[in-house]
Amino acid sequence: MMMWYVIMWTTLVLTGIALVYVSNRVCRFECVKKQTKDDEKIKAMIGGGTVFGTFALISIWLNFMNAIVCIIYFALAWLICDAVFYVIEKIRKQPFKRYYAGAAAIMLSLAALLGGWYAAHHVWATHYTLTTAKLARPLKIALFADSHLGTTFDAAGLAEHLDAIQAEKPDILFIVGDFVDDDTTRENMVAAAHKFGELDIPLGTYFVFGNHDKGYYGANRRGFSSAELVEELRKNGVDTVRDEAILIENAFYIIGRRDASVKREQNGQRRSMQELTQGLDKRKYIIVADHQPADYAAQAESGVDLVLSGHTHGGQLFPFNNVGKWIGANDAIYGHEKRNNTDFIITSGISAWAIKFKTGTKSEFVIIDVMPKE
Questions:
Q1: Cα–Cα distance between 273 and 180 in angstroms, integer?
Q2: In terms of Cα–Cα distance, which of 150, 320, 323, 130 is closest to 221?
Q3: Residue 267: per-residue pLDDT
Q4: Which terminus of the chain has fewer CB atoms gathered within 10 Å of its CB, N or C?
Q5: Dist. CA 260–CA 258, nearest whole Å
Q6: Does pLDDT of 86 surpass 90?
């Protein structure tokens, strides 16, 4: 937990530095110099007022976290453009008459943020193909995670994405955590859960909890408890799987894990992979749904065949994509890898928490075709 406090305070300090830096850069525009007659105090007031005012407006419009993202991207773009134009000036051996670096920085940062907005709010289908000798017939798995309902779409938006998933004709659907969040309303949750009842998924839909699903601020804030979420999903044909293994059609197992946050943040317990796989027929294909990709060694050692995760949002923001891996919070960030005989797949999420930009990845749902080996 201490590590996350360090990251939070580091982010706040960097935000302060970025605000001051961008304010100083704005003062270099010719129009500001002319308007202030190059008076340093007035320039500082105009630069600071413009940047801090814009930061406040974004905080009100989107939220404080998104304002931080915007100002840090502006600062990074400005640093890059200042450096590039400094080198160009040295090569041409004379300064530019106008502050082209500033104009380029604004265009670069706006392009990155607009692209990030689109990548977060548009949802792609990502396909993987795996092979196994343990299945007699093909198995098509659909997976999504991290909808954080209400961030980039509401229940109606989720319904559209579920229609796209249904069009892929999956045999089974996994919702791998963070389906809802603290800002999800009861009405939104109920409407979204109702949509699952309209799907035709032959082998069923299965849900495992993420760290946000129980809510960090209690049921009163959002108007429903985790038990009510489970019940609403159950009424619409979605089974919640918590530290248990289920045999499907005598062909393969699914294991749904309690989220790692139960142990780290809520003083609870979750069963180990050894306990969960004890007594299972390892000749059958075994799929594990575990929200956080943070137990790869034990999962690979247990001999399961496929592990499905979310949580990381694919890194979400470039160039900070791999921070979770660097600090040891996650074993991997995105995509497919194989350890021993176990395939691991992490989705970047169908939406995002709080931050409405994805500059290092994109929103997606995942389709996995598991093919029998001949």
A1: 26
A2: 150
A3: 61
A4: C
A5: 6
A6: yes
Predicted pLDDT at 87 = 95
Read off the tokens for 110: 């706006």
On whether the pTM is more than 0.85, the answer is yes
The backbone torsions φ and ψ at residue 169, rounded to the nearest 5 degrees and listed phi first, read: 55, 55
User: pLDDT tens across 345-371, in order?
Assistant: 999 999 999 899 999 899 999 999 999
- Span 124-372 CATH architecture: 4-Layer Sandwich (3.60)
CA angle 306, 310, 315 (to 5 degrees): 125
Q: How is the chain split into domains, by residue range? A: 2-119, 124-372
What is the rounded CA–CA span in Å between residue 85 and residue 168? Answer: 49
Q: Which residue has the tokens 């009100």?
A: 60
The CA distance from 3 to 34, in Å, is 47
Per-residue model confidence as pLDDT tens digits over 260-287:
988 765 567 899 999 999 999 999 999 9
Residue 115 has pLDDT above 60, yes or no: yes
DSSP string spanning 156-218?
Answer: HHHHHHHHHHHHT--SEEEEES-SS-TT--HHHHHHHHHHHTT---TT-EEEE--TTTT-SS-
Place of tokens 């450096």: 83
Q: Give dist(CA 365, CA 348) in Å, integer.
A: 8
Axis crossing angle, helix 186-196 with helix 155-167, rounded to the nearest 10: 20
Residues shown for the chain: 374
